[in-house]
Amino acid sequence: MRALCWHGEEDVRVDEVPDPQIVNPHDAIVEITATAICGSDLHLYDGYVPTMREGDVLGHEPMGEVVEVGNAVETLEAGDRVVVPFTISCGSCWFCEEELYSLCDNSNPNAEIAREVMGQSPAGLFGYSHMLGGYAGGQAEYLRVPFADVGPLKVESDLPDEQVLLLSDVFPTGYMAAENAEIEGDDTVAVWGCGPVGQFAIQSAWMLGAGRVVAIDRVPERLAMAREHGDAETIHFEEEDVYDRLMAMTGGRGPDRCIDAVGTEAHGTGLMGLTDKAKQQVNLEADRPHVLRQAIKCCRKGGTLSVPGVYVGHADNVPVGPLMNKALTVNTGQTHVQRYLDPLLETIEDGDIDPSFVVTHREPLERGPEMYETFRDKEDGCVKVVLTP
Ligand code: NAD
Ligand code: ZN
């Protein structure tokens, strides 16, 4: 089959690779009909994840049609149309039973690498390096889906792919980010980053009762989307001082809830202009205008910081002193996607939201390499790319 494969920093290629096979009776094979590129893929593209290997198949936001199931699979059969969450979860360990699906204890066959780095291992993820399972990803013609009774969401309505595809990751991720922000009546919510995750965090902040939403970025098309689609007030972080503006907007108190939908960002602020060696160390000086530090500084005393943005390793000098003295609450994590699939599908089917508003680029899989570059550089008004194998 054809698949988008990682070959090193800024080097992804469409390769011919072997078709995936059922290797466990709980597996299913899905023929991919649509598959998106995520901001998380950019951390791999930018070369920040050391446990990628040449030839790894990328992608964790796929959907398609089930073509084969292992003989222990009970809920799916060939012909079912499914959205596949990026988190691989067994459904029966302590964490899955607590609905903490992205922390599953049984889905990372390389858990010892993760344990060495983090003390314990989170769940395996599709297409996200050997530290997180080494699973082939879904930017390909076919995908092997382990624990097929736990992950995939069957879509029975005739909604087009584009409207349901983003349930695989960024819609639930924006939603969990807003839930993690612990929004209460009329709170002011500040969202750093107007990529797809930021856009869905903005939408979800309103769904959860925010009184005011302020969005921060520097890409004009993304700021415009946050205003026009998200009803947010916006701050262009290169044209205005973010702290000063947020204080002015909140009478000097600061936003009640701050969402970092940026994470490790090479091309916004943090790592730009560093040598490769410095990038490897990813240990920035404290005075760089990094989002996490800025959010801690801006958040009102006693407020909440929600961090869906992905950080790799020890990327930041986190100001623990201010965090403690301002009595901030921090909530973070990879999204427990399975938890949100049914309720968010319902919001789409009811017509409350059409997630395809973020999709700006639709291209064949063969154009994947150019699309990684376009998406990374935010060229051509690019907010979200959907590839079709
Ligand atoms: P993206 O790269 O499209 O968007 C990031 C945005 O942040 C860009 O628009 C960029 O201009 C902006 N930005 C950069 N520096 C900034 C700064 N200093 N202040 C404000 N904005 C700034 O990515 P995305 O797909 O929206 O994903 C966002 C983050 O969420 C990534 O780190 C991604 O890895 C992460 N993510 C996490 C999960 C999860 O489960 N927690 C899931 C998906 C994505
Ligand atoms: Zn993603």
TrEMBL record:
GO biological process: small molecule metabolic process
Record-linked InterPro entries: ADH-like_C (IPR013149), ADH-like_N (IPR013154), ADH_Zn_CS (IPR002328), GroES-like_sf (IPR011032), NAD(P)-bd_dom_sf (IPR036291)
Positions of the Alcohol dehydrogenase-like N-terminal domain: 25-153
Annotated keywords: Metal-binding, Oxidoreductase, Zinc
One matching Pfam family: ADH_N
Single GO MF descriptor: adenyl nucleotide binding
Cofactor requirement: Zn(2+)
Domain spans labelled Alcohol dehydrogenase-like C-terminal: 196-265
PANTHER family: DEHYDROGENASE, ZINC-CONTAINING, PUTATIVE (AFU_ORTHOLOGUE AFUA_2G02810)-RELATED, ZINC-TYPE ALCOHOL DEHYDROGENASE-LIKE
Membership in a protein family: Belongs to the zinc-containing alcohol dehydrogenase family.
Protein name: Glutathione-dependent formaldehyde dehydrogenase
